[in-house]
Amino acid sequence: MNMPSTKIPSLILGIETSCDDTCAAIVRNGHHVLSNIIASQQNLALGGVVPEVAARDHLQKISQVVMLALSDAKVSFQEIDAIAVTNRPGLASALLVGVAFAKALAFALHIPLIGVHHIEGHIFASRLENPDIPLPYVCLTVSGGHTLLMLVQGHFQYQILGQTTDDAAGEAFDKVARTLGLTFPGGPAIAKLAAQNLHEPIVFPLPMMYSGDENFSFSGIKTAVRYYWESLSQEQKACQLTAIAAGFQQSVVKVLVEKTWRMVQQYNARAVVITGGVAANQELRHQMLCKAQSSAVSVFFPSLPLCTDNAAMIAGLAFYKLQQTCCSDLNLGIQSNVVCKTIVKNGL
Ligand code: KG4
Ligand code: ZN
After folding, report:
1. 30 and 117 assigned to the same domain
2. Looking at the 3D structure of the chain, how many domains does it have?
3. Which of 148, 178, 222, 278 to mutate to test the pocket of ligand 1 (most atoms within 8 A of CB)?
4. 3-state secondary structure (DSSP) of residue 153
5. Region 8-33: what's the mean pLDDT?
6. Does ligand 1 have an atom closer than 6 angstroms to the CB of 284?
7. What confidence score (pLDDT) does residue 346 get?
8. Quick one: which ligand is closest to 185's CA?
9. pLDDT in tens, 58-78
10. 308 lines ligand 1 (CB under 6 A)
11. What is the Å distance from ligand 1's center to 142 Cα?
12. Which residues pair with 36 in a beta bridge?
């Protein structure tokens, strides 16, 4: 590939187009975010992400988003040392736009290209702002596409402890929101209604709470909410909307917190990290902090703009990948569904 220069690459342009957000960021030395542009798509009318529509939207926006990232950071193309891009996992057509754009730029500028794993980017998002998270830590990644519980024993050494057997936590928020007639993405819409609730939350099941393993399942609770909703009259629906949102959120949060905490205790972890879009949920943040209150375990969440998809986490992680000489070449491809191995060493 374009020969890495002798200078340590410190100024990295990150590009992220794995789902519906078109993102570009400039990060210096892995931790100093100079710009972080996120252009979200308007999927409200579609009720979710349509891959074909998302890809076309990325294509229209990517140049502008990258130019904005450069101007916000007050740097020129010539000053960029390397380009990092999410190349796995994600929607194939959406990933292709970012990867093709990044390859062309790396070729034109004669600088290194680094393909980055989206989930590893989410995990790094916490470390971006807190470089000294004590090891070992338990990391819960909860997004629209993934629910992964991991033990992190060394930076870039991940052991997968559990994952969802069906819907991801964010996906359940999105699908329940659609049932309740709320806007997309569903997580913020449900969280907002739950915060307004003045009644007893409706009780929903605690999926796989006592399954004896560390996996999750959110498809059953989504169906339970739908059946409950469909059994109500219009008047009851209006009266109970906030209590249903609060009950659903409560069940999901309880399972996530309990199962994560069991792993913290089992592995004597010194910290717990919650990352991904659902980590923006205030109830999840509150309950996890309460759990850790009387212990020596530190809790880390990325700041809100770094919870959901962003390119700063991709550029930050790439700084370390480059030091491990994890450089890609112009044959860099995409992998839409990367199978999660049981034990993953030295990066996902
Ligand atoms: O990480 P992310 O931006 O994209 C994926 O990699 O999937 O996560 C998006 C997911 C969506 O399912 C969205 O509903 C959920 O994160 N989300 C939330 C909140 N904000 C975003 N879920 C619960 N509460 C929130 N406040
Ligand atoms: Zn994500």
Report:
1. yes
2. 2
3. 278
4. strand
5. 95
6. no
7. 44
8. 1
9. 999 999 999 999 999 999 999
10. yes
11. 8
12. 25
The answer on 230 and 116 residing in a single domain is no
Q: Is residue 211 part of a domain?
A: yes
Tens of pLDDT, residues 126-161? 999 999 999 999 999 999 999 999 999 998 899 999
Whether residues 162 and 205 fall in one domain: yes
CA dist 5 and 101 (Å) reads 21
CB atoms within 10 A of CB 101: 21
**pLDDT-derived band at 257, boundaries 50, 70, 90:** very high
- 311 falls within a domain: yes
Q: What CATH number did the domain enclosing 91 receive?
A: 3.30.420.40
Looking at the structure, tell me whether residues 101 and 236 fall in a common domain.
no
- Ligand 2 centroid to residue 307 C-alpha, Å: 8
CB atoms within 10 A of CB 102: 28
- Residue 197 falls within a domain, yes or no? yes
Structural domain including 108 reads 11-123+307-339
The dihedral through the CA atoms of 183, 186, 301, 8 has a sign that is negative
Instruction: Kindly indicate the confidence band of residue 344, based on its pLDDT and cuts at 50, 70 and 90.
Output: very low
Q: What is the pLDDT of residue 341?
A: 41
User: 143 C-alpha vs ligand 2 centroid, how far in Å?
Assistant: 6
85 and 221 in one domain? no
Report the distance separating Cα 132 and Cα 55, nearest Å.
37
Same domain, 324 and 294: no
What is the average per-residue pLDDT within 121-128?
A: 96
173 lines ligand 1 (CB under 6 A): yes
Distance 137 CA to ligand 2 centre (A): 20
Residue from 20, 126, 143, 287 to probe ligand 1 pocket by mutation (most atoms less than 8 Å from CB): 143
For the record, the structure tokens of 202 come out as: 């409706």
Does one domain contain both 66 and 139?
no
Q: Are residues 152 and 298 in the same domain?
A: yes
CA-based nearest residue to 336, from 28, 89, 120, 32:
89
Give the model confidence (pLDDT) of 311-323 as tens digits.
Answer: 999 999 999 999 8
